[in-house]
Amino acid sequence: MTTNSSTSSLVDEGGATEVRAGSYYGYGIPYLPIQGYPGKIIAIEGTDGVGRSTQISLLREWLEVQGYGVVETGWTRSDLMQPTIDLAKASNTLNKLTFVLLYATDFADRLEKEIIPALKAGFIVLSDRYIFTALARAGVRGVDRTWVRSLYGFAIAPHLVFYLKIDEKTLIRRVLQSRGMDYWESGMDMKLGDDIYESFRAYQRSLLREYASMADEFGFRVLDARRKVDVIQEELRRQIAAFLAESESPTPVRPE
Ligand SMILES: Nc1ncnc2c1ncn2[C@@H]1O[C@H](COP(=O)(O)OP(=O)(O)OP(=O)(O)O)[C@@H](O)[C@H]1O
Ligand SMILES: [Mg+2]
Q: In this structure, which residue's CA is closest to atom 4 in ligand 1?
């Protein structure tokens, strides 16, 4: 796979379409052309508690030591939307549609204010989750897949998407050993089980299925997240180094 021809697809009404990394998936943001921006988006995807933040902070350190400018962006972290999403979650007043639209607004805000300016300035954007988390969460709640993919037509196809893949049992052990299960990560709004443990298990099982079903569609680079932190980090660094070396190498001149 060559750097600038890596593709992902986003289903629209006309069927699956191939999208070049660094381009909009669909209609994009009409007043913000992004062609030729030198920055790169590297997304780390995976379910709740799988180890994304751990890997991202190690990656950031490694990239900065090499002289790269790094910007981190993460789900529901936009200044505009974070308080609203927190409020809606706390008061349990989210229904399926507002859930999807609030997340999309958060993403749109970060795209305009953080991600696109960083791409323009040549930064590496490390994204803790990307639109795939939104697609997975909407999918398990029965929101129409074509509709939600089309909604995210304003998003930019990342240059690399790493998916931290884990099984349900290992995930449960990891989450119980660290910070425990929370209401939303357990899908308690969906009333899937009698208690938070059962609910977490059922919800996460469905989410893992959703992520798995997107792997080919969006060209995820799948990493076994059951391994040790440093083993996963080493694999990430190897793949990212190879990608950056290729994207920085001069374009070969075609013979006339
Ligand atoms: N490969 C690993 N093996 C064992 N434990 C891990 C591994 N990676 C992370 N952890 C531990 O699992 C917990 C969750 O990790 P982390 O916060 O990085 O996950 P996250 O995916 O960012 O979670 P969240 O969904 O809450 O943002 C932490 O206690 C972390 O130390
Ligand atoms: Mg995290």
A: 228
